[in-house]
Design a protein that fits this description.
Largest sheet: 9 strands, mixed
Structural class: alpha/beta
Bound molecules: zinc ion
CATH architecture of the largest domain: 3-Layer(aba) Sandwich
CATH topology of the largest domain: Aminopeptidase
Number of domains: 2
Distance between the termini: 26 Å
Length: about 475
């Protein structure tokens, strides 16, 4: 427990005593039927998996907003309701694409396969590059890079990153097993990354196409000529909305800062059927985290007003690239400087076999003093046993951590078998575990909202971009 380095032995004993007290002294009981009721709604088949930026996600957000209102939370400062809408650029392609370079024309489905598309037509001079070497310094911006050599899937990823860094508008690779394996990551076909409309009004900027061996040879003869990669976007598909549900519990001392409790309310929607089930319910990922935020809101709003304010946020569009939290970070109703801590709840619906019984893992445990302090006040939290998985960097807390907010994710079973499967459903949830861990957090979070203690990063704990 590296986080304890700040405290002397006496403080440790004192805090252990507090923990024993806190476990018996909660003035609030989280009822198992409340936990089950949120899950019964959010993870039901009728919610169709709460696909990011869909009507189903909007319904889930409306449910959370309505619960916040019912508990007595207020709209956040500057908002007149409990929903924050963000436009996302989310185009669909009609499947036709054409690449022209001088005298050569390639059609999607014959010699050309779009792997990743920004859903915009791009053009630039054709530049040949050697896949084994870094992209040459003098490569003009706006080029279309052609790499003839064979590469595996991870080299393909590196090529895309290097190409984007060099300002290329598109990357062309030889078609083969690696290209097929890459598209397998998103279930085949062309991936059109979804982005916030305000940051990427014309798409993601990434274009990767695989070209047949025969066509590669023909393209080599066109080096230096202008290449145009034309795509066709389904009309009216481009801009959709995603929703964050936000509730606010005003504190009695506005200068003492705000605590942010978060989860994400979207999931994968309808997808590839597994054993005849195509609904990705996301009961654990992350209706469970949403339930934790709801029940902590319920508990805190029902007690006396805390000294600090508490902001409860359930994000939309996490599953397509953490867009809800990105938007929130750019449009927070409370200045980020005023946030003294963020706890994100992810997949708390199953007990991790490596953790003590009824205990959540907290990512980046040793990076700040918040985990040890909450634990000392009775929270069933402990160090993340999977540092190699980089959960700290892979969740919604990370963007805020980069901004300096002490932000961590609390999770149940880090590597659960139902992860991103249709059987992440009510039947595979451990509702008793959920109820126990949420209950354990009520008094510690209330304490955090009331105390003089301000969480801080440990030495070298704060991440930097
Ligand atoms: Zn997920």
């Amino acid at each position: 427990m590296l986080g304890w380095w700040r405290m002397g032995a006496t403080a440790g004993v004192l805090l252990a005593g507090l923990a024993a007290q806190a476990q018996t002294a909660s003035s609030w009981t989280v009822k198992p039927e409340w936990v089950r009721a949120h899950e019964e709604f959010l993870a039901s088949d009728v919610m169709a998996g709460r696909g990011s930026a869909t009507r189903d996600e909007e319904i889930a957000a409306t449910y959370v907003a309505s619960e916040f209102e019912g508990y007595g939370l207020k709209p956040a400062p500057g908002m007149d309701g409990y929903l924050q809408a963000a436009e996302v650029f989310s185009p669909e392609l009609d499947g036709h694409a054409t690449l022209t370079a001088g005298a050569v024309t390639l059609e999607q489905g014959r010699d050309l396969r779009l792997l990743i598309s920004s859903a915009t037509t791009v053009s630039g001079p054709l530049v040949e590059v050697d896949v084994q070497k870094p992209i040459p310094e003098g490569t003009p911006k706006g080029a279309v890079l052609l790499s003839a050599g064979r590469m595996d899937q991870s080299q393909m990823g590196q090529f895309v990153r290097a190409g984007r860094k060099a300002g290329a508008v598109a990357m062309l690779v030889a078609d083969g097993d690696a290209a097929t394996a890459l598209t397998g990551q998103w279930g085949g076909g062309t991936r059109v990354p979804v982005r916030l409309a305000e940051t990427h009004p014309t798409g993601s900027g990434t274009n990767l196409a695989a070209v047949s061996e025969a066509a590669i040879a023909r393209l080599h003869a066109q080096a230096g000529k202008t290449v145009t990669l034309a795509v066709h976007v389904v009309p009216s598909s481009t801009v959709r909305k995603t929703y964050n549900a936000i509730g606010y519990l005003p504190g009695t001392d506005p200068a003492s800062g705000t605590i942010l409790l978060t989860a994400h309310l979207d999931h994968l929607g309808i997808g590839k059927p597994v054993n005849g089930d195509a609904i990705y319910n996301g009961a654990n990922d992350d209706a469970a985290g949403t339930t934790a935020v709801l029940e902590l809101a319920h508990a805190l709003a029902s007690g006396p007003a805390p000294r600090r304010s508490v902001l409860f946020v359930c994000y939309g569009s996490e599953e397509v690239g953490e867009l809800g939290s990105e938007y929130f970070g750019r449009h927070s109703p409370v200045p980020l400087k005023g946030l003294i801590a963020n706890l994100e709840f992810e997949m708390i619906g199953a007990q991790d076999p490596k953790m003590p019984k009824d205990t959540l893992l907290l990512t980046g445990w040793e990076r700040s003093d918040i985990g040890p302090m909450l634990k000392a006040h009775g929270a069933k939290l402990g160090p993340d046993p999977y540092p190699e998985q980089h959960f700290f960097e892979r969740s919604d807390n990370y963007q805020l951590a980069l901004e300096g907010v002490v932000a961590h994710t609390a999770a149940g079973y880090g590597t659960v078998a139902t992860y991103h499967q249709p059987d992440d459903d009510l039947a595979h949830l451990n509702l008793e575990f959920m109820t126990t861990v949420i209950q354990s957090l009520v008094e510690p979070v209330r304490w955090l909202a009331t105390s003089e203690f301000t969480p801080a990063w440990t030495k070298d704990g704060q991440p930097h971009p």
